């Protein structure tokens, strides 16, 4: 069987893992578990191709435990029983359970006692948020770790490693890849290393060598193999970020035609996840309280786009870009929170006033916790004068209303009314 490059390049030791240094770097939690041989069940969640399976296989390789892989959606209870029997004989087994959020109750009930005893060390993998999608019974018996999309540098490192590795990778081929092709291959997959490796393998194996026996991989070949166009053929790739920046600045400046132009360039490059993230940032950073319903419509349009995929996704995306362009603008929220953070980071914060502290425990009253708190709902218009900010910041002001939209204008009037009462 012809195993794909992404499978062959899977790490067998922790120190071979690309990225995720917040978990597997020196002194970090998973590295500590492996070094101390104190493994516990865990759930790894994050986007596809970020290393969930790689971390599981590397943990097994570094600890010499038996390693088995199952899928919670397609494998049945009998498959789990086989793993449990093996664990009884060998002592412990690391079980990578893909799509762990789809684990049904019978399989869950079977697994729980084995997790409690440590006979099965579960490594659940999912792209879903485990705090929402995974049952509390499993969640309470596992540590939860979030994996981040890999950086362009991380993916380039992995691609170069695959090109040089003669045993597992493509080192036996004589490959020459241009800088812009490597950059596009590492960037266009949005942090998904598996997709980048798949694209590289297809490019190399489907390209005939030249007269000198060298396989020349160009940007055009990479674009065809991953089915994503580069925004431009510039070597350094600055245009990718320039277009994202131009999209936001054009929307902020209410230029509909320029915004649609830059959106079109991102659509042509197939960067749906980049577009989605940037539009949500714009909706809250640049439109904000001037038109909060625009943010809701943005989220709805992005959800529709992700379900539709390209080419149809262009329709809701264009709709919301026009909406955001012509909406009133306000940046009062980002200015307010950044001002508050600046005070906190410069050490101006102090203790929470006693009357605001938690009083739901025995002995709180003796410490004067919550004793003099005034419950606003017991007063006219649900407002009563009392101190909320810490002593050092009693006169701090962070929010300055913007009057460009009807909604924030109404908030500004209420804000002014409250301030006058103070």
From TrEMBL:
Family annotation (Pfam families): AAA, AAA_assoc_2, MgsA_C
UniProt KW keywords: ATP-binding, Nucleotide-binding
Any one Gene Ontology BP term: DNA-templated DNA replication
SUPFAM superfamilies: P-loop containing nucleoside triphosphate hydrolases, post-AAA+ oligomerization domain-like
Recorded GO MF terms: ATP binding; ATP hydrolysis activity; DNA binding; enzyme activator activity; single-stranded DNA helicase activity
AAA+ ATPase domain residues: 38-150
Keyword Nucleotide-binding attached: yes
UniProt xrefs under InterPro entries: AAA+_ATPase, AAA_assoc_2, AAA_ATPase_RarA/MGS1/WRNIP1, ATPase_AAA_core, DNA_pol3_clamp-load_cplx_C, MgsA_C, P-loop_NTPase
Family that this chain belongs to: Belongs to the AAA ATPase family. RarA/MGS1/WRNIP1 subfamily.
Protein name per Swiss-Prot or TrEMBL: Replication-associated recombination protein A
Biological classification of the source: Bacteria, Bacillati, Bacillota, Bacilli, Lactobacillales
């Amino acid at each position: 069987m012809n195993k794909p490059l992404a499978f062959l390049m899977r790490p067998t030791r922790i120190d071979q893992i690309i990225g995720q240094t917040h978990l597997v770097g020196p002194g970090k939690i998973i590295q500590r578990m492996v070094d101390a041989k104190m493994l516990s069940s865990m759930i790894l969640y994050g986007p596809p191709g970020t290393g969930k399976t790689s971390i599981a296989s590397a943990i097994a390789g570094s600890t010499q435990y038996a390693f088995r892989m199952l899928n919670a959606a397609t494998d049945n209870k009998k498959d789990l029983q086989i793993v449990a029997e093996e664990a009884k004989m060998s002592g412990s087994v690391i079980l990578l359970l893909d799509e762990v959020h789809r684990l049904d109750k019978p399989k869950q009930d079977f697994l729980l006692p084995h997790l409690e005893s440590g006979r099965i060390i579960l490594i659940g993998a999912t792209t879903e948020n485990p705090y929402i999608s995974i049952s509390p019974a499993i969640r309470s018996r596992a540590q939860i770790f979030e994996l981040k999309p890999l950086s362009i540098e991380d993916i380039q490192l992995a691609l170069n490693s695959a090109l040089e590795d003669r045993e597992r990778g493509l080192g036996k081929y004589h490959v020459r890849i241009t800088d812009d092709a490597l950059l596009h291959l590492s960037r266009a997959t949005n942090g998904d290393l598996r997709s980048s490796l798949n694209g590289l393998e297809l490019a190399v194996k489907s390209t005939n060598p030249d007269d000198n026996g060298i396989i020349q991989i160009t940007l055009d070949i990479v674009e065809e193999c991953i089915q994503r166009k580069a925004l431009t053929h510039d070597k350094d790739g600055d245009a990718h970020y320039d277009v994202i920046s131009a999209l936001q600045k054009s929307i902020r400046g209410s230029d509909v035609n320029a915004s649609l132009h830059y959106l079109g360039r991102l659509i042509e490059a197939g960067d749906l996840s980049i577009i989605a993230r940037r539009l949500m940032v714009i909706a809250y950073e640049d439109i904000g309280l001037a038109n909060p319903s625009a943010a809701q419509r943005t989220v709805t349009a992005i959800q529709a786009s992700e379900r539709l995929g390209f080419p149809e996704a262009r329709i809701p995306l264009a709709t919301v870009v026009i909406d955001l362009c012509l909406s009133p603008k306000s940046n009062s929220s980002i200015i307010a929170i950044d001002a508050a953070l600046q005070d906190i980071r410069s050490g101006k914060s102090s203790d929470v006033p006693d009357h605001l502290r938690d009083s739901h425990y025995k002995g709180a009253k003796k410490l004067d916790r919550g004793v003099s708190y005034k419950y606003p709902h017991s007063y006219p218009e649900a407002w009563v004068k009392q101190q909320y900010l810490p002593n050092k910041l009693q006169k701090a002001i962070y929010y300055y209303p913007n009057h460009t939209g009807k909604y924030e204008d109404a908030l500004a009037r209420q804000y002014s009314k409250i301030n006058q009462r103070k």
